[in-house]
Write a sequence for this structure.
């Protein structure tokens, strides 16, 4: 099976996720600038989640450039990733509506952790299908960014109960690590062309 349907379906789901998140933003009824202040936690949680979804979309796009054939394992691993990404809107809304309280912040971290694990599983399924000498395997190497992200999420979740801002600072740090474009796959693909 080719990868085109997988790519198109994934793009559609990610577009819907972003749409749901933006629909959660409600405009204030007042016209004063001060009316925006209560919306700040909701807006900040939206911005962080938008950045995360954008990072996943970008990296997923690059990841699928290494795929030649899709197996059942890849399809299921991709659906597993999309499941966790589809929970971003509820995590975003809960953390924003509750002004970054401990439990919603920790749950948001759990969603981030599970999405990262799901992405790792998808990478593993692709490597299993295409081999240890595949483009993806050579591109990701030891995957220090992926492993560091998992460690940071596991650290942030319990720290969110101590103080939610610590957890959120770590979530922002992980996003910043990935915001710098990951050129590993691009480098390997350019060598093969």
């Amino acid at each position: 099976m080719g990868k085109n349907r997988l790519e198109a379906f994934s793009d559609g789901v990610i577009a819907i996720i972003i749409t749901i998140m933006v629909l959660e933003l409600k405009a204030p009824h007042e016209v004063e600038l001060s009316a925006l202040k209560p919306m700040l936690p909701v807006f900040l949680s939206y911005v962080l989640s938008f950045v995360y979804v954008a990072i996943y979309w970008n990296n997923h796009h690059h990841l699928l450039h290494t795929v030649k054939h899709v197996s059942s394992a890849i399809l299921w691993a991709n659906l597993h990733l999309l499941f966790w990404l589809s929970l971003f809107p509820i995590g975003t809304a809960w953390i924003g509506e509750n002004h970054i309280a401990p439990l919603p912040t920790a749950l948001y971290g759990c969603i981030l952790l599970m999405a990262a694990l799901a992405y790792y599983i998808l990478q593993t399924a692709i490597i299993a299908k295409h081999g240890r000498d595949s483009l993806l395997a050579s591109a990701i190497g030891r995957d220090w960014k992926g492993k560091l992200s998992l460690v940071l999420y596991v650290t942030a979740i319990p720290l969110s109960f101590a103080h939610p801002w610590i957890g959120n600072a770590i979530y922002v740090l992980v996003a910043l690590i990935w915001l710098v474009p990951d050129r590993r796959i691009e480098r390997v693909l350019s060598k093969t062309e």
Observations:
- Residues 102-130 form the longest helix (29 residues).
- The chain has nine helices and no strands.
- The chain has a mean pLDDT of 91.
- The CA atoms of residues 65 and 189 lie 8 Å apart.
